[in-house]
Amino acid sequence: MKPKFLWTLLVLALLLTLNACATLPAAEQPTAPVPPPTETPVLEVEAPVPGNPVTQLAIQALATQIGVPAENITVQTFEAVDWPDGCLGINLTDMACITVITPGYRIILEANGQPYEYHSNKDGSQMLLATSTPVLSEAPALQVDLQGGIAGFCDHVSLFLSGLATYRACNVAQETRYQLTPQQLETLQRFVTQYGSFEYTQSDPAVADQMIVQFIFNGQGTEAPTAKTYQEMQALGMELINLARGTSPNDQ
Questions:
Q1: How far apart are alpha carbons 242 and 144 in whole angstroms?
Q2: What pLDDT, on the 0 to 100 scale, is given for residue 111?
Q3: Boundary of a domain, candidates 88, 103, 129
Q4: Measured between alpha carbons, how far is residue 97 from residues 29, 37, 124, 181, 237 in Å?
Q5: CA 125 to chain CA mean position, Å
Q6: pLDDT at residue 44 is higher than 50
Q7: pLDDT tens per residue, range 120-168
């Protein structure tokens, strides 16, 4: 009887063990972590090159200089440049440039199949046409002819909106070309915007040192010139004349 009793206890213990295992909760399966929602990145897109304010200034300058509609001018190149000096990398004849790095742009435009390269500073307030000769179809914005004086001066200077100027002594056929400084070009642009076209001659009394100054001006403004206007234009012309007298063929 004893062995039978032991087998009975063993069977009961086994049943209790199986019942306990059956009631244990199933282990939870690990779940993959859900990533937090992310925002869609916002890309900063620059304005298209033709709509850039600096290119628009260059287009307007060229349209004025060669007399074509702005919509007929296209932008070929627009690149940021660190110019080596205050003259925007353009050699100004016999004029000193501040040696300081000047951030700006190189802008190449095209009109009537002809390329035109401009150099500007960062905001476009300085805009120079990088060429060695005036645009052929461009008329001078201002011409100043000076004759007379005890020394018998006879000088002719033409200033262009492209930023170039030409000087010629009256008895010499050869011209000397110069680049206007940013300040001179700004003054010339102000004249063109403010005053209408005119021709004017002023002269001193008929004495031995009589001076005769003639102005030929192509403006786009509406104001009439005053005595102060003539003085300012003569002063601008004289800056180039005085510079050129030391380098012109007439003085060699």
A1: 13
A2: 86
A3: 129
A4: 77, 57, 18, 9, 20
A5: 7
A6: no
A7: 999 988 888 876 555 545 689 999 998 876 666 789 999 988 778 888 8
Percentage of the chain exceeding pLDDT 70? 68
Q: What is the pLDDT of residue 98?
A: 80
**82, part of any domain:** yes
Q: 149 in a domain, yes or no?
A: yes
Could you give the strand order of the β-sheet that contains 114-121, starting from the edge strand earlier in sequence? 74-83, 102-111, 114-121, 127-129
Find where tokens 């951030």 sit. Answer: 103
Which residues span the domain enclosing 89? 49-129
Contact between 164 and 129 under an 8 Å Cβ cutoff? The reply is yes
What values do phi and psi take at 18, rounded to 5?
-65, -40
Helices (H), the chain: 2-23, 53-66, 182-194, 227-245
Q: What sign does the CA torsion over 133, 136, 139, 145 have?
A: positive
